[in-house]
Structures are given as C-alpha cells and as structure tokens.
Amino acid sequence: MSKISERLLVQAHLAAKQPKPLSIAQENELRLAIKAELKAQDAVLLAHYYTDPVIQALAEETGGCVADSLEMARFGNQHSASTVVVAGVRFMGETAKILNPEKRVLMPTLDATCSLDIGCAASEFTAFCDQHPERTVVVYANTSAAVKARADWVVTSGCALEIVEHLMDNGEPILWAPDRHLGRYIQKQTGADMLLWEGSCIVHEEFKSSQLFDLKALYPEAAILVHPESPESVIALADMVGSTSQMIKAAQTLPNSAFIVATDKGIFYKMQQLCPDKVFIEAPTAGNGAACRSCAHCPWMAMNTLERTLSCLQHGTDEVFVDSSLIPRAVKPLKRMLDFTQAARLKHLGNA
Ligand code: SF4
C-alpha cells in the first residue's frame, strides 16, 4: 500500500471512528453492564496493552487478561470460557479463532485493523514466497489468517529473536514479513540470512531519533525503552529494545527512576500500575498536527471502546470468522510458535 493511501485510510479512521468521551456515570454504567454480560455469556475479556486503560482495567477486574499478542493467544487458548472477547486489532481476534475454532470470538469492532496486516496482502505475499521456495517463511503475528496459512512459522516481537536464532542454527535461510524495522533489527542481532518484506507500523515509524536525542538531554537519568518496530535510528538510542512485555519488565527491573518509552502510550497504564513511583515519558513523534499519523497511539486500538464491547456482547455483532479451509494451515505455524515458547519457558525455569 502506498504511503498516501495508507495515510488517507488512517485519517478516515481517525475522523470517523474515534470514541466520544464519556461521563463517569456513563462509564460506570457500561462497565457494570459488560461485567454482567461476560458472566451471563460465559465470556472472558482479553485486552492488549495498547487499548484504553478503562478496557485494560475491566479485563483485569473480570478475570481476563491484559497482555501482548503472544500471551493473549496463549491465555485465550487455555481458558475454559466458551466466548472470547478480544479487545485489540483484527489479527488478534483471528488468532484466537484459529486456535479455538469451536469457541465464539467477538471483538468490539472488526474495523480495528493494523497497518502491517493491510500492507501484506495474501496474494502478493504468496507470489513473493513462490519466488523464494528455498526460504523458511516466518511471519509476524500482525498478519491475516491467509498470510499465516502460507507461513512455516508465526512469531511475535517477544519470541522472534529466539526463533530466528533457532532457524539459523538449523542453517535455514528466512523470508520475513511484514515489518521491515523488526526484521532488520533481528537480522542485525542474529546475522541470519533474511529476505525482508517492506511493511511498517504507522505508530512506531513515527518516533523521531533527533527529538529523542534532545529529550534524553532533558532527562539524562531516564532509560530509553524502544519497541523494535521503530526505525533503526531510534533503536540505536535505546537502553533496552524489546516487546511490550519485555519493556514492562525492564521498567520494573532497571534501577532508573524515569523512562522514555517508544511504543503506543496505552502501555503506560500497566507500567504505572506496576511501578507507581517511577516516571514514564512518551518518546517524541512528529507532533500533534497533521504531520503525525499516530501521535504514539494506534488509531485502530483506540476503536476498542466500552460501548462497542457491550454492543458486541449484547447483540453478538462483530463475531470473528475465519475461512475453515485456512484454519488447518494457519494453526500449524501458530502452534509451532506456542510450543517453541513453552519449551523455552520450561527450559528457562529449569535453569533458574
Ligand atoms: S500499533 Fe502498529 S503494529 Fe500495533 S496494531 Fe497498531 S498499526 Fe498494528
């Protein structure tokens, strides 16, 4: 997708789909109604770290989970609820459905998509893979079910490095899609032979290294935490690079009292909750005007509102369906990732 059409798409979402502010009374009423519906419908709410804090708090209060996409997939897979409500973006709902085809998967809105998913159409991606049959196909979780169905492995930013190292040890050349910044970062870290698709995240791509450098001068004691979907020049200034969960862990474990954070600002809810005495500062983007496409908040994650969460539960709308012919092929690379990370986790516990 060209930069111009991508920008128009984002602006259309920003103009038409963003939530209206609610009064405290309205918010409380909606929260109570959602809690009642979750219970009545044997449903569990999974919320991504980038969603509105009010949605994250509700997931926690109702026994659901607030997590990155890997943990959301794992949690939804293991939970006994017959309905899973995924507050995040569409590929997360699809992942939940692929892993649990027998469950009903709802989303506050199916319109919540992702620039990485949009920028990696299955037909073009399949043609790209067909041109390089000798390569092991590794795709980021931020892709459609059809793209996953063409992959050998699915990865998230939390496990991509280890999985690529594993493939490199096996001598496998890699075809990587869709995020070029994350791909380049992993390539640099591992030295793996990787052919990269040229996708990007509109949120992380907006972080600016020169302004970050200036901000660091104002807060010399602050550690810089950067998500690897950010540009190389921003990563170069980082004290720590990692997935959302790894960034939260770093906020908890590093001795610094302040952090400059280069990822979606929805993550501040969890960071502040776990580290109430620490200060978190947004990494700079191009600014709040027309020059900035995201201003450190994903326009699609912002579509997950209380009203839409209640509506999908009450009316059964925005249910996620995945073409049944894709599920057997898409589930294989997903399960491979879950098995690999589970084995790595057990090994780590064994070594601890
Ligand atoms: S933050 Fe970026 S990668 Fe995440 S859902 Fe939004 S556009 Fe996609």
TrEMBL record:
Gene3D superfamilies: NadA-like. It comes from the Bacteria. It is found in: Cytoplasm. Keywords: 4Fe-4S, Cytoplasm, Iron, Iron-sulfur, Metal-binding, Pyridine nucleotide biosynthesis, Transferase. One of its GO terms (biological process) is 'de novo' NAD+ biosynthetic process from L-aspartate. Binds 1 [4Fe-4S] cluster per subunit. It is an enzyme of class 2 (transferase). Pathway: Cofactor biosynthesis; NAD(+) biosynthesis; quinolinate from iminoaspartate: step 1/1. Belongs to the quinolinate synthase family. Type 1 subfamily. NCBIfam families: nadA, PRK09375.1-1, PRK09375.1-2. Catalyzes the condensation of iminoaspartate with dihydroxyacetone phosphate to form quinolinate. This is Quinolinate synthase.
